[in-house]
Structures are given as C-alpha cells and as structure tokens.
Design brief:
mainly alpha; two-stranded antiparallel ribbon
Length: 168
C-alpha cells in the first residue's frame, strides 16, 4: 500500500499535505542548525574531559535560562484548522443555489450551470488560501524555532566563554 496523499479521501488530503510541509520545514531547520553548531577551542589548555564537562554544564545552564532544549527534537504539530472542501464542493453548492435562483427566474438548468461555475471558482480560491495559510504557519513555526535556538546558542556561548573557551 502506498503512503501517498493521492490515495487518501479528498477530505484528508490538505491535512496530510500540511503536516508533510511542516515536517519538511522542521527537518530543514534541524539540518541547518547542525551545520551551524558553535566551534569551541580550549583557550586556557583545558583537557578534552574538562571541556566535555563544561559543555554539559553550559548546556544545562543555557537550557534553564532560555527554556529551549536543543537535544529535544521538534515535533510536527497539526496545521491550523481549515475549511474543508474546494472547487468540487463549491461547484455543488453553487449549482444548488443557482438552480434555486434559476427556478425562480424560469430556467433552473441555466441557473445551476452558472452557479456551479462560480461556486467552483470560489471553492478553488478558498482551497488556495488554505494552502497558503498552511505554508505560512510552517514558516512561522520554523522562524520561531530558529529564534529560540539562536537565544540558546548565545547563552551557551556566553557560559563557555566565561569558563575560558573561545567560541565561534
């Protein structure tokens, strides 16, 4: 069985796509953070054992100061609630409304056709807005993670420098 959004009921597709997008953004942030970990040099001749002890002590201190734990892998949270439907649902609703208006005007079929077309367009626009909102949500989450990680790195670096290390 393929694990692909195309094989899910249409009502579930936006949620899966949003979760996948958020997961991809978080993975990219983690990979970028790993590439930007600070480099530490024992400026006062500290041993490697002493440096590891100091790194751990500074990890604990910085975590307490910032409330951020870089050892905890971020989890993908559900995207914000969204309206279900799209072009097809909008077309069906538009057709029903158009048929009712058309019946009053004397041509239910023509009214249904006009209503279906306009409802489909409106439903498609709503779906695109929902997808854009999910992308913005994922970007906001990633930016928040980067900011908290930066605060932690500054605190950790200050602690290590206070113990006689050069941190870049």
């Amino acid at each position: 069985m393929r694990n692909d959004a195309r094989f899910l009921p249409s009502s579930m597709r936006p949620a899966v796509i949003g979760a996948v997008s958020l997961s991809a953004v978080i993975f990219a942030v983690i990979a970028a953070d790993a590439a930007q970990d600070p480099i530490v040099y024992p400026a006062k001749g500290q041993s490697s054992q002493k440096m590891e002890q100091d790194k751990y002590s500074c990890y604990q201190w910085a975590k307490g100061q910032t409330g951020f734990d870089p050892m905890q892998v971020p989890t993908a949270t559900a995207p914000p609630p969204q309206k279900q439907g799209g072009a097809l649902k909008g077309a069906a609703g538009g057709a029903a409304m158009g048929a009712a208006v058309g019946a009053i005007a004397g041509d239910a079929g023509k009214g249904a056709a006009i209503g279906a077309a306009s409802g489909g367009i409106i439903g498609g626009v709503r779906r695109r807005r929902s997808e854009q909102a999910q992308q913005q949500y994922a970007q906001d989450r990633a930016a928040g993670y980067e900011q908290r990680r930066g605060e932690y790195n500054r605190a950790w670096g200050a602690c290590m420098e206070g113990r006689g290390y050069t941190v870049k």
